[in-house]
Amino acid sequence: MSREQNKDSQAGVQPLGDRVNNRSQRPESQAFKEFMASAWGPSASPEVSRAEVAGYAARRRLAISRKFPGERLVVPAGPLKVRSNDTDYRFRPHSGFAHLTGLGLDHEPDAVLVLEPVDPGTGDHGGNHHATLYFRPPSGRESPEFYANARYGEFWIGPRPTLAVLQQHLDLPTATLEELETAVTKDAGVVAIGGLRIRLLREVDLNVDALVDTSRINTGVDLEESDNLDAELAEALSELRLRKDEWEVGELKKAVAATVNGFHEVVKVLPRAMAHERGERVVEGAFFSRAREEGNDLGYDTIAAAGNNATVLHWIRNNGRVRSGDLLLLDAGVEADSLYTADVTRTIPVNGSFTPVQRRIYQAVLDAADAGFAAARPGAKFRDVHSAAVKVLAERLDEWGLLPVPLEVALSPDGQHHRRWMPHGTSHHLGLDVHDCAQARRELYLDGLLEEGMVFTIEPGLYFKAEDLAVPEEYRGIGVRIEDDILMTADGPVNLSAALPRTPDDVESWMAGIYAGS
Ligand code: GLY
Ligand code: MN
């Protein structure tokens, strides 16, 4: 109790910390507790089967085990995050944890995966570690947690898996969080004097950070050096995701399919959006309904940007009007239950027909996307896709007389004037995170080579702001981006989002078809 609270309680004032109980009161009587613990039939326990992802997750753990022999690896899922007071956000585990366990949906707050080093080659699947998943199993209906704990109790949030259920489902040994402290800290210390090195995926769960830091301080381990070791683990986990396995590709295809349905839904609601003061919200809501119906959630906040708002790269306020005659830029992705997400953008004429200037800009962006696609080959550099796309945009801007310098000057590193109208990158890796593999080294990302199994976006755009005095008036207030999700195969790139029309004619016929049917 703080000094203030102490003073308050002496004065008969309810302490601040107790005020959360003012909304309702739970009976405290022994009779109530006993009655609540009695007369329940068995839980409708889910039929437990080995998850399809289990074998894939085991191979991912083996890859990371081989990189760090003799070291304890600690990968937390992260805690629930408070939205306000006693209300939390829906839980989403850290992507590095989801990748190594195969867990999706809202599994499991506070869980920690520990890879315990064993004699090289004697670990799981011939690796260097034994993996255990530590998590909080339900306490059972005899415990007040059942009805009194709004974060973890079955009465509040529904049934949660037991140790046995999750162990069988993931084909991965499980243990309770009570055993975590010992599992993380035992025998840890300075390697030179026989201690065991811990590597931690940091800044995911501050409690686990504190546990590891305390152990390091108590055993004389250098904290600064440990920071680097931890960063190397984050980097390795990120780089492990650069190439997707076939299960991941399947999940990404599901996410894209649901996203395509979401875009159809949006075209259907456009008449209502046009009539609404905040038409962009109508668009956002229509896409979100598909995301929740067919997937787990959105992979990122939807960008529903009409007219000049489309020139704001990450416009997510989405409270503008959707006017006939304007373009609508929709950048949206459904996240599947496995947490893999799509990331697709289409820019469509609100009334179903492009004006000549809109079509001209749209076609330039489409040609840039196609040039990026043509440059994307196994063995090509990741950055080649961007260079190819941006070169096309520069050429068009030159043809239209918008560049203040000759094309060669603009294309030189000292120029780059064309980037005024496309200041973002053309591609990023896509997977569990919309901007996946973000901790990968530059030589494996931007300067890396495209390889079979990589999934990334191609998303050029042109953005002419309403107040851009460097372009003629007819261009102002128009933003166009076209974004597709690309899987690299041995035979070249496959456009996973090709089911959504891309050419201006195809976009117009697609919209006309939906309007005719609705
Ligand atoms: N979908 C938004 C982005 O890629 O930044
Ligand atoms: Mn993107």
From TrEMBL:
Cofactor needs: Mn(2+)
PROSITE patterns named in the record: PROLINE_PEPTIDASE (PS00491)
The protein's enzyme class: hydrolase
Region annotated Disordered, chain positions: 1-30
One annotated GO molecular function: metalloaminopeptidase activity
Domain Aminopeptidase P N-terminal: 51-202
PANTHER family xref list: XAA-PRO AMINOPEPTIDASE 3
Similarity comment text for this entry: Belongs to the peptidase M24B family.
Protein name: Xaa-Pro aminopeptidase
Organism encoding this protein: Arthrobacter mobilis
